[in-house]
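Instructor's aside before we start: the two examples that follow are unrelated to each other. I chose them only because their records fit on one page, so don't look for a connection. First example below.
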Amino acid sequence: MKTVLFAVLLLAAACIPEKPKTAEIAFEKGNIEISRAAAAPLKINVELAQTDAQRERGLMYRTEMADDAGMLFDFKTPRRIGMWMANTAMSLDMFFIDSKGVIRQIAEYTVPFSRDVILSEGDMLGVLEMKAGSAQRFGISEGDIVRHAVFDVEK
């Protein structure tokens, strides 16, 4: 009888879903300014993903974010960048930014939890992620300039 009870408890424990590994990762906070062609500059509060661990975690496991907030991924050297939405519950707009701070590509309304890779069309230095709809809501377009110390922006 003890063996059967142990087997039932073991089976029950195996059926409990594993909690996601969401150990906290600290992100430095900062601000960026987006110079838009069609409107006044826009200030956004960002968290900076600068290390491999920070870039790997990104906005995973989060369920909300302020409209005027985002995460800026700094890849340190220009390269083709692949992003995905695994473990990310919120739909996002992704802004792919070259080394001069110019937004070269925008992926709008990304699909939550998707493992499909969203690949940059050329070498980029960073990616800004904001809530889905931000590109339309704030009038952010390809060619706009992101001002932050990460980028070599001409004054």
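Example two begins here.
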Amino acid sequence: MPAEVSIPVALVHSFLLVLARVGSVMIFVPLPGATSAVTPVRAILVLAATMALYPMWPVVTVEPSPVQYTAWLATEAGFGLCIGLLVGFISDAFLFFGQLAGFQAGYSFASTIDPSTEADSPVLSVIAQLLAGLLFVTFGLHRVVIRIFATSLTTHPPGVLILDRNWANVVIHAASTIFSTGLRLALPVIALLIMVDLTLALLSRINSQLQLLSLAFPIKMLVALVTVSTILVLFPSVYSSLAERMLSTASRLVR
């Protein structure tokens, strides 16, 4: 007689709650190729992360009503989105740098295929985004994110977690780092390009016979390329500092 496998309903409830918390964070976590991957691959990735947290799954001792369980799932998804946004801000800061530097240097006319969205994007923005994804894996931040979720399942188990409006304040305040970090990285490029424009303008003023307009565009692109290549060595330290700040903020949310 074949054996019957029975799964407790409480275990299914725990699995779905943890799945909602982990699955929502994958929307914004900057894993290289995760966005453009086919749906089964992303589903397997979320399931694998959920099963890795099995020892930390909560025990649902009560039988919730459909309305109550739906509210639990929405709360878990909202919590996961907050953590995912904080982690995604790290990559967005470098993307903002690429957009600022590329637009000022004229690289906005040079587009390439963004592997994450498969759309035409400025080349410097794509390079900055790919570099941020590479640093995310190199620094092992994916393990830190899983550790944060393991801690959250202990401090704020599903079914007990309550939506807090302070989460929105924390996320909005952390979003300002996108602009501050991206602008600080792009300022050397922008400053040198302004100096190039002023120099060419003065030379044209001194001698109107000089045809410098045709040289302005390639000179600015070359100066921007050299400057970006020079400050590229600072990217790991800046990324590490920003990641530490964002992940410490995420850790405070789960305490």
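The chain has one domain: 9-253.
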